[in-house]
Specification:
homodimer, 2 domains, Isopropylmalate Dehydrogenase, globular, alpha/beta
Chain lengths: ~350, ~350
Amino acid sequence: MPDRLVISVDAMGGDHGPDVTLSGVARATKFLVPGARFLLHGDAARMEPVLARLPALASVCEVRPAESVIPMDAKPAHAMRRGKGSSMWNAVECLRAEEAQAVVSAGNTGALMAISRLLLRMTGDMDRPALVANWPTLRGVTSVLDVGANIVCDADRLVEFAIMGAAFHRAIHKTARPSVGLLNVGTETEKGHDDVREADRRLRASEFALDYHGFVEGDDIAKGTVDVIVTDGFTGNVALKTAEGLARFFTTTLRTTFTADAMSKLGALIARRSLKRMSERLDPGSINGGPFLGLNGIVIKSHGGADARGFANAIRVAAELAASDFVRQLDDDLSKHLKAPGASATAPAASRPSEGIVAA
Amino acid sequence: MPDRLVISVDAMGGDHGPDVTLSGVARATKFLVPGARFLLHGDAARMEPVLARLPALASVCEVRPAESVIPMDAKPAHAMRRGKGSSMWNAVECLRAEEAQAVVSAGNTGALMAISRLLLRMTGDMDRPALVANWPTLRGVTSVLDVGANIVCDADRLVEFAIMGAAFHRAIHKTARPSVGLLNVGTETEKGHDDVREADRRLRASEFALDYHGFVEGDDIAKGTVDVIVTDGFTGNVALKTAEGLARFFTTTLRTTFTADAMSKLGALIARRSLKRMSERLDPGSINGGPFLGLNGIVIKSHGGADARGFANAIRVAAELAASDFVRQLDDDLSKHLKAPGASATAPAASRPSEGIVAA
C-alpha cells in the first residue's frame, strides 16, 4: 500500500459521468489531507476537456484509460463476465493490487458489488456485503443497514451488521461506542420473528464495542434515536425506498403549494433564505456515500444521480475510512463474534436461495 | 341484523374519549344515509354532558353504559381475560349479537384485535386479521396491508391479503378491479425471497377480481402506482412507521423554517392560504379508519389521536363497508382461493411462532 492517501475513482459511473465525478474530485481536494492522490479510470478523451477546466487536479490525478463503461442497467452477472477492462473493474482492481486504499464509484450498484466481491473477496464467512444508507435525522445522521443486498438474514447476519455498522459509524463520526438498535415492530422483547429476537439476545449478551439499545421501530429512524439501525436487506430496502418516495411526495406538495397563486409565490420569495436553508438540509448530497461493508477493502457507492458536492462527500467517506483503523477493527470485532457462544448455530444465510437488489 | 344501518361505537377509546368520538358521530350523521343509528358504549356520566351539547344526536343514538374502559397500554391477553363489560368489549359484542353491522373504536389496537378474534372469529383458515393503512399518495389513496398483525407470512397469506385488500378497496373506492402490487426489493421476477416469489406466481395465475400488477418497490407507495399494496406485517409495519417518522421530520423542519426569522414568518403569513390547503392535504384525518380484514364482521380501527373529523371518517369507512357487498364477496373470493391449485401447500403461518404488534 502507498503511504500517501490514494483513492481509485470510477470516473465514468453515475448519471453524469466525468463532468460530475471530476468536479467532485476537485472539490474533495480542498478538504482532504495534503498529498492525497487520485487514480481516474475511464475514457481519456472524455476526461481531458473536463480536466482542462480543472487545472488544480493535474498535479494530484493520474488518468488511467479504460476501454469500456458498465451501463447503469447491466445485470451484475453480465458485468462480472464481461466487465474486465471497464472503468469500474479497473478502479476496483487498483484496490486489490494495493495501488489505492479506497475506491469510489457512482455506477451500477449491483455490478459494483459483484465485481468487488469477485476481486476483493468477503471477510470472514459472510456471503455478500451489507449496504449502508446514511439517513438524515432530527439529531444528525443514522447509519441504516442492510438496505438491499442480503434479503434473508438470520440472527448471525444481523449481529454482524451491528458490529460492522458500529465500526463504520465510529470511523466516520468519531463516536467511541455508537448506539445500535435492531429494527422491529415493537420494543418489547417478545415482539417480532425468531431471527430478530435471537439477534437481540446475542447482542444483549455480547461485549462488542457498541452500545446496544435494543429494539427500535420505523419512526425511530428519522428521530435519530440511535446511531446505527440494523435490519435485514428486504425490510431495509423497503424502508429506504418508502422514505425516498415520501420525500418526493413532500417536495412535490411543497412546490405545488408555493406556486399555487401570486400570493404563495410572493410568500416563497420573502421566505426564500429560510427555504434555501431547508432544501440544503434536506439535500441528500450532504450525506452521499454509502460503503459496502464486509469486503476486504473500502468500496464506496455514490448515488448515481449525485452532483459534484455529493460525489465529493462520497470521497470524504472513502478518505475517512482509509485514514481510520476501520478495516483492522472490523476484522477483530468479527473474529470475536465468530468465537462467541451461539454464533453460527443456525444455517448460514448463504445457503438459502434469495435474491436482493444484486444478483448472486 | 337490523334493516337500518346501525354502527356500534366504542365511545371511550382513543386519546380524547367521548369529546372526540361523539363529536365524530355528530359529524358523521351529516353524510350518512338517513335513518342510520349508533350504539354508544361507555361511561354514561361522561357521555351525558357531551350529548347535551350535541342535541341532534339524541334521536339517532342509544347510550349503552359500560362498566370499564380498556387502557391504551393494556396487554391484549389481559384485555381478553378481563375486558368483559368494557366499552370496547360491549361494542364488539353488539356486532356478534347482530345488533349492529359494524363497530368503530379508537382504542387499544391489540386489545381490539384480540377481542374481535375472540368474539367474531376469523373467516376461512386465517389466523389473525390483516391491518390496512390508508396511505395518501400523489394520485389518491393506496391501501397497504398487512401493517403489523401477521409478522411471518407465507405465499398463501400474501395471496389472501391481495384478495382482501382488493375487496376492501373496491367497497370503499368503487373500483371494479383494483390494481394490486406485491412489495419487493425490485420488480424483476427473480427478486426477493421465496414467499414473495411464490405469491407472485400464484397471483399471476389466479382469476380473482383484481388487476395484478406484479412487484412494486417502496417508492411506489407514495407514487400511487397501484390501488393496493400487499406485504408481510413486519415489512408493512416498518414501512408505515418509517413514513410516520419522516412525516414528523418534514413537519418539524417546515415549522423551523417558517419561524426562523421575521422574513420567514412574513412569507408564511402571505402564503398562509396555500399552506393551510397543504396541511389539510397532509392531514391523516381525511383518510382515518383502517379495517381489520379477515374477521366475520366489520371492525374499523380509528387512530387513537384522531380528532372528530378523523373519527367521522372512520365511521364513513364502517358505513360504506356495511352498505357494500364486502363481507359476502370476500368470503366468495377466499373460498375460491382455498380451492385454487397450490393453495395451502405450505405450512400455515399460524403454526410459526411469531409476535406482531398484537400478542397471540
